[in-house]
Amino acid sequence: MPGLEDLYREIILDHYRNPRNRGELDAPPALRVEGFNPLCGDEVVVYLDVADDGSVNDIKISGQGCSISQSSASMMSSAVKGKSADEARALIRAFKAMMSIHEQRLDGSEEEEPIQAEPDVKLGDLEALQGVVKFPVRIKCATLSWNTLAQGLDEAAEAPDSQ
Amino acid sequence: MPGLEDLYREIILDHYRNPRNRGELDAPPALRVEGFNPLCGDEVVVYLDVADDGSVNDIKISGQGCSISQSSASMMSSAVKGKSADEARALIRAFKAMMSIHEQRLDGSEEEEPIQAEPDVKLGDLEALQGVVKFPVRIKCATLSWNTLAQGLDEAAEAPDSQ
Amino acid sequence: MTDRLDVARIKKDFPILERVTHDHRLVYLDSANSSQKPRAVIEAMEHFTEHSYANIHRAVYEIAEEATAAYEGGREAMRRFINAPSSREVIFTKNATEAINLVAYSWARHNLGEGDAILLTEMEHHANFVPWLVLREEKGVELRFIGLTEDGQLDLTDLDRLIDGASLVAVAGISNVLGTINPVRHLADVAHNAGALLLVDGAQYTPHMPTDVQALGCDFYAWTGHKMLGPSGIGGLWAREELLDAMPAFLTGGEMIRDVRLDGWTPNDLPWKFEAGTPPIVEAVGLRAAVEYLEGIGMDAVREHDVELTGYALRTLTERHGDKITIHGPSEPAARGGVISFAYDNVHPHDLSQVLDQSGVCVRAGHHCAKPLMRRLGVGATARASVYVYNDEADVDALNESLDEADRLFAI
Amino acid sequence: MTDRLDVARIKKDFPILERVTHDHRLVYLDSANSSQKPRAVIEAMEHFTEHSYANIHRAVYEIAEEATAAYEGGREAMRRFINAPSSREVIFTKNATEAINLVAYSWARHNLGEGDAILLTEMEHHANFVPWLVLREEKGVELRFIGLTEDGQLDLTDLDRLIDGASLVAVAGISNVLGTINPVRHLADVAHNAGALLLVDGAQYTPHMPTDVQALGCDFYAWTGHKMLGPSGIGGLWAREELLDAMPAFLTGGEMIRDVRLDGWTPNDLPWKFEAGTPPIVEAVGLRAAVEYLEGIGMDAVREHDVELTGYALRTLTERHGDKITIHGPSEPAARGGVISFAYDNVHPHDLSQVLDQSGVCVRAGHHCAKPLMRRLGVGATARASVYVYNDEADVDALNESLDEADRLFAI
Ligand SMILES: Cc1ncc(COP(=O)(O)O)c(C=O)c1O
Ligand SMILES: Cc1ncc(COP(=O)(O)O)c(C=O)c1O
Predict the structure, then answer these.
(1) In chain C, fewer beta carbons within 10 Å around the N or the C end?
(2) Contact yes or no for C240/C216 (Cβ under 8 A)
(3) What is the pTM of this model?
(4) Residues in chain C closer than 8 A to D49 (CB atoms)
């Protein structure tokens, strides 16, 4: 359908139909973090098994949402699994850099600096989500699981013993 | 000044400059009733000395307001002083009948019946206030003291012993 | 042609319907979210602003007098439209949400506490939900919920038990998700027999049904302007005068007072007692034009049109998409307003709405501010198409065609 | 010609100024009550309604996206206009009154109680008075009042004693009666030193002064759209983010939630947490056009124009009417905004306003929603002329002439 091929790339539809790392982890010991998109009702639950050194031992995703939020969560889980905390955070920044300019435009606010791109980070499959920036309302769908992941990493860093 | 001679008749300005029955009565035994026009800040205080049979032995007016509210109060006090409760009420009805149609139009509401004219009641000087109906916002100025009087008569009728 | 309305003519009254979006004409099927505005409303507001704008109730000069009469004329139009006994009972707020909050803050906070109960339904919009959740947190009021039947109607089998000891029943006249028209008159009788009051959330009802608050038998009635062809920024509450008289003021400030001293204050008369500050003046003028536009069509005709067009949509959607489509809510068009929520195969509503938009078809996707109902239905979101006076069968046909395209795109 | 503004050109931007009233051109001198609207505002609202109207934050189709961006664009314009650090801190309400009530209901009700004190001034508008009187009645908070000097300024001699133990200072940026520009920055420092917060009622300030909430040093700032060339039905609150974060929601319903369950709910992010229900969407679009119009003139130029025109008015009124006129408030034009309240001989303000109206001159008569100040001044009402960007010396001359006529009519 004209206009939509940028949004619904084949790899996105594939992750939507066959989500990776779908499921739950026992929490505790795992960390369970919820994310909501109040606009559309999408919910994502990220389960994180974080090692003492902060690296992501395991990750599972549950919740419900549109093809963009689900495929983004699926790709995110594949990308960060096994990564160190620093690598995961660099990925978050790189992904948000790909999305951020337009996210701010939707807000109407221009006061904040756009997140800087991370030239050394390879986004791989995730680059398929680049088409989302042409559809500003959908950016929040794409970033939902990433924001939830970021919150989880913060919680893990703050309370390392509680895991 | 063109357009205003109907409003500011000589007799109105005379009552404004030389208000009749201006002053206060000791309350109690007299009844003290306050009226406000929240639109413009006009305040009228009506002091009523009501006999056991309900007739208006004495009346005094204090407060502050525009020429219309002050002259209306002054004429009202002259008109009801010495009158029986029934006569005073008939005057109130007659005066409001002169004003009422337009008061309702200002409200935008048409659901209520206009107050019926009282063909037997002579308004005398008060008829000078008829010009007010051409200036709908001022109707509340003209009726302020009358509504306050009506409230006073009601209070007197409800609690005859408290005077 | 089943329509009783001359929709072709009506469409011409709405300038936005001439708009082209993604190379298609605009097929606006989201009126339950907010309706479009006819030229008459736009022009009434513009004319007023260009000729008579002033603040109201505050000055004696000519344009201020005209402005006051225009604002109060909006109130009188609304009184007539819902058949309220007196315009003293018609209070302007910014939307239906504020109207319900007014009842929660003023009436409920001062009359209810621990040991009291409020009866809601599982299909309420958040506007008729969260204010009562807050009241429960603050005052310990008990909340009870009328459940739903499989057909999306209120399940009244347990009503006698639920109503027992309740002080307030608060229910939507029409559900914004299921389209269900609730049995308000019956609920009023049951509530009153049990000594409870009835609040009707009329946000979806008043735009679509001939509204008579006296015949409905309710005690509080909330409505909103932007869903009934009127402007944003205005809504209102109707309530019986003796209730309003006894209720303390809610928002306070200018207009709503009679006197203020350093040591106290007295409130103004109704309805102004509940209208603090400069009200939506121009919006009241636009609302009156909206009321008059709807009166010109006739609310009986609006209702008939809803039933016919919704019936057409239910029929064609089912015929064309078969098992792929699941429609929520009552199966009978006569039991529902102009709202159709549905699920489409494995296409998420959000994606569906995005794909439909490419054909100019505007439907809403989401939880429709009714998350408890979403949980009850076991979904995160639905797609929702809703019709109004400017929609016709061609609009429904466009919806059907664009659903086919979504189907092709998301097919495996 | 002392004006820096090209008022002749500006007048042409305001359609209502072409109006004839009582056979005279309209001389609108009541902008402190509500301002008129330039064509740019009217047209922005109309264009938006005819091309992009939809509800916001709720749907994904193109016009809904445009509507959301337009509404949020209004917020960003307002953020810029008052130099707020972040648009998350800019909350839309229906007017300034609701903004102050929001602080009273949410922040104050949850932080203050018996033993706490709020410091007000004797010149406050009812909007910044009655909410605190209600709080005193409900929570036993103590209210204190900064008195006035003979020149209509705040009497700060006792400030150290008054501030001691206070939790909040709430003060108008500019008095709507006296025109006094209050020393907000100084009050902010004094309040903060004493551990109190400062709320500024900016209803009269923002239309007339370059506004920088950070430079003012306040914690809460309320403003209203209709006095700054914008539409009715919209106003707002700015507050520091950490305050807003800690404050409980006030009005509740749709938009302001993140999740709702039968057993509880969680609020949305800022600023939406405080915007329940459908907001004034079209009004936000109009407000942005108003902000851009004022920015086009430049707020420094607006302020200069106020000072010059007010100076001209003070001078000519005194010269021409001598002992007959008593002007309230500061004698220095630089110490006041564009507001002149006065008494004229023995002509009651109400009569004065009526007589002036016959010459097309619109001034307000009344208590200006400041009854405690009226008592302090020992009057029941004042007449008030107020100027804005579309007024010039000819308007002041018309006022002077019509005062002469009133004098003749009421002369004994
Ligand atoms: C100083 C001041 N504060 C508050 C207000 C209230 O503004 P609004 O009526 O728009 O809420 C006004 C205007 O009437 C005002 O002049
Ligand atoms: C059933 C129902 N109630 C209440 C509301 C709230 O209306 P508003 O957003 O105008 O306050 C809506 C609309 O969103 C609704 O559909």
Answers:
(1) C
(2) no
(3) 0.94
(4) 15-16, 37, 42
